[in-house]
Structures are given as C-alpha cells and as structure tokens.
Amino acid sequence: MVGQRKARRAIGVILKMIEEGKIAGRAILLAGEPGTGKTAIAMGLAKALNENGSHENGQVPFTTISGSEIFSLEMNKTEALTQALRKSIGVLIKEETEIIEGEVVDIVVDRPSDKQVYKIKNTTNTEMNEYTFGRKVGKLTLKTTEMETIYDLGDRMIEELERQKIQVGDVVTIDKLNEVVHNVTLHEMDVINSRPQGFLTLFTGDTGEINHEVRDVINSKVQEWREIGKGTLIPGVLFIDEVHMLDLECFSFLNRAIESDMSPILIMATNRGITSIRGTDQEYKSPHGIPIDLLDRCLIISTDKYSKEELQEIIKIRCEEEDVECSAEALNFLTKIAQECTLRYAIHLVQPCHILAQRSAGAGNSGEITVSHVKRAYDLFVDVERSTQFLNQYQKSFVFNDSSSLDNDISKSTDTTFPLYSAPANKYDISHSVDSKVPSDDEPIIDIN
C-alpha cells in the first residue's frame, strides 16, 4: 500500500486486538474522502489475518457488501445482513481418531489372480530364478453390540493379524487414525441443513431466507463442538462499504449483532460528513449518517488526502499493472490532475491515454504516453467539476432541470466534513502550449473504412 501511514498503524493495533480476542462488542469505521484507500485498508486487514492467523488450515472469511445492496435483494433487510454476518464466520471442524471394538466372526486372506513374475539372478550370476509375488488381500468381519461389519484388509493389516495370531472368536480393538479437517462458514451450514438439495444449493445461489430454528440448531451444535474440542470458531471480516446507505432499522440490527458471541469483525466505510440518517426525518442529522449509539461502539479511523509523492507513486503502480509506458512528464501531468481533480479520475485517464499513444506510435512514437496524450484524454473525458460547470451554464437546455435543487445540494455538501462536491470556476487550465503536437478536434481518432 501507498500512504495512509496513520490509518495503517491504527489497523495494526486492531489486528493485534483481534489476535488477542479483545475486539468483541466493537466495530471499526473507516471515514474519509472518496478515493483515500478505505477499501484497500479493509482488504489488507483480512490478508494480514490469514497470514498471521493461528488457525491451522483455516482461512479467515472476508465478506464485502455495499450498503445499497441490502435493498436490492429478494429478502428482508435483516435477513440479508444476517446472511452476510454468518458468511463472515468460519468453523473449523476436526474429525479425529475413531476406535472400533468387536468380536472377530470371520477372517479371509487370499492372493489376487494377477500375480507378477520376476526373474532374479542367483549368487553365481549364471542362472535366472523365477519368483512369483502377489499382494495379499483379505476381509475381516467384526461383530459389535450394534452391527456386524466387513472391513477390507491391506498388507500391513494382514501382517499384524498374523503376528498377533488373531483367530475367530477373539475380541479386537482397532484404532482408525483418520483426521479430516473441514473449513466451512456458518452460512454454508445453514444452507446445507435448510434445503432438500443440501450442499448443491450453494452452487445454485438461490438460498432464499433461512428459518431461525435452523440457525438455533446450528449454533447449539457448533457450541457443543467447541466445548469438546471438535470445532473452532474463526471470526472473519464483514466489510460494509457505503454504510451511510443503510437505514435506521439496519443500524439497530447491527448494533445488537456485534454484541453476540458469534459475531465477525465489522468494518464499515463512509465518505459522508454530517448528513441525514436514512429512514428518519430528514431534519435529523448525525455524523457520517450513522446513529450516535452505533458510532459510540465504533473505533473510528480517519483517512487523509494523499500527498503529491503518494499520488504519483499510485499512478505509477497502476501504469505498471496495466502494462503501460508513461513518460516522466506525463506522469507529473497525471499527478497534477489527481491533485486538482480526483485520484480516480486521473487513474481512469491512463487507458485512454494509452490508446491515444498506440495510435500515434507510427509517427515516431514508441507507444509511450506523453503530455500531449494526457491533454487530449483530459479534453475528451471531463471530470465531475467541469461537468457540473457545464450543467450550470446550460441547465435550461436539459429536460426537467431543477437548478435550485442543485444549488442546495452543493451548499449542503460544503458544510460537511467530507464535501461531496466543491467546484471553483476554471480550477485547472490546460490551455498552455506544449512542444508535442496535440490532435485537433477535427482530426479523426478512429478511422472507419
């Protein structure tokens, strides 16, 4: 990761609290302006939990949802949140040694018909002696107080029976050293036990709503396994992006859910300042659009704006990931755009610039992005602020325009901690000339032959 050192240090403390089991009853809120790496920090925490986790063979579940996603599912809101929570809780189930004890009813040992013949030289190296080898196979019939079972025997088992001189009528005890580890989530257990199709339901995706009685039985069984050492609970991470899109009912549900023993680590992210809580009177406002009682349970981590050096490093990494060559001047130019506009807008210009560079590669250019390509892409694709300026200038030409509503939204956003928009006029001017040739508006970009 690049930048956000303070937030990453805070997440490091959270990671230590999780490892020591001292995060119960708390949630984490990542609050900051758009494009400041809130989602990346949450995913970094999940990766660190998997790398440093003490659960052998157990991956820490990581579930990510959007606040608006809750309202688009074909189930009620609390059921959708419950399924997301239980997807984020893993259960490590261990099936250990099984002891079989019973009376020997029958022992059958024979050799298979497909014997193999080997020719081996004798000690004088003059003659070849033939030896016939065949793998022993057999069956053992044991009678217990409950049933009579037939077991297939291998070479080692037959040798052990012959060494012990086991006969019909003897009582034997066999240890089956077979340890199997299953790593599932609570939601997967819910689905398997609530649908006739069982495990196949997980592949269809049509899980629907799950009965509360089924979950109660699953919780009791998991608790029983934990007490006898057969199962281990693995609290995962539930990351809710755009948490301000949830309503009061959802917030109340989450407030109660994080108090449960079977609760994952809840991480929420928002870019809103003081705004209305969804599902309440519009006059009721709260920091980040979250009720005060839930905020009181949160450890709030703020993300700051990236510095110029950090912006440049992020854009450089993105160019390397997309296999794009970018000149130093163009990289500085994109960094300037990221400072004056947004980081996301600057990153979105990388591929259009690359396409423009490829088109001009035949004119003495190797396909490397130059300042002229960045200027051309900046002119073709406007950012939010220039788009808003255009709307303010030509709003009467649009259908169903409401200039008063736009003015109110802008005035409200400038009063919050994290403004949604603030657009000074002529914020960034690229009209100055450069040495390289900039394509004119009438020059075709795509040839149609």
Automatic annotation (TrEMBL):
The lineage of its organism: Eukaryota, Sar, Rhizaria, Retaria, Foraminifera. One of its GO terms (molecular function) is ATP binding. Its EC number is 3.6.4.12. SMART domains: AAA. Residues 24-307 form the AAA+ ATPase domain. PANTHER family: RUVB-RELATED REPTIN AND PONTIN. It comes from the Eukaryota. It catalyses: ATP + H2O = ADP + phosphate + H(+). Belongs to the RuvB family. It is found in: Nucleus. Keywords: ATP-binding, Helicase, Hydrolase, Nucleotide-binding, Nucleus, Transcription, Transcription regulation. Coiled coil: none annotated. GO terms for cellular component: nucleus. Pfam families: AAA (PF00004), TIP49 (PF06068), TIP49_C (PF17856). It comes from Reticulomyxa filosa. This is RuvB-like helicase.
